[in-house]
Design brief:
Layout (H helix, E strand, L loop, with lengths): L4 E4 L4 H6 L5 E11 L4 H9 L14 E4 L15 H12 L4 E4 L5 H9 L3 E4 L4 H6 L1 E8 L8 E16 L2 E2 L4
Helix pairs in contact: 2-3
Length: about 170
Amino acid sequence: MEEAIKISTPISREAAESLKVGDRVLISGRIYCGRDAVLPKIQRAIDDGTIADLGIEPEGAVIFHTAVSPAGVGPTSSNKLEIESSIEPLSKAGFRMHLGKGALKEETIKALAANGAVYAVIPPVTALLGAKTKSKKVVAFPELGMEAFNELVVEDYPAIIAAARGRSIYDK
């Protein structure tokens, strides 16, 4: 088995494009967390040019489809309408990696490739991820509680590349 690829954020487009389906990665650095309630708000902030006002830097960023609660973090289904529909616009804005779980639509996989981004599945192991989370803070939309947009600093978060270069690990 090949050794895991260590990735630090921010991720360059070239680094994202070098990844292939099935690669195991260990992610370190700052990652953002958001899911159903907050991702449409992040999209609007990108569209209206206020994303920087929120202290969010999309270029080379990683977005983890999760809520942050006292119990920890774990992936949510990335193929929920509000989440999957955010993947293309966030990738266009510079987000290079999306973390979650579940199969994505073919058009989403193609949009990732067209925008130099990848999708990785992350194991639903809250205890493991908690030990690898060094800090967490709410960045935007605190009124959404555990579904606010959060920033984590992580070390060696494990994931498997599930969509890259127009292909998916879920392809038959």
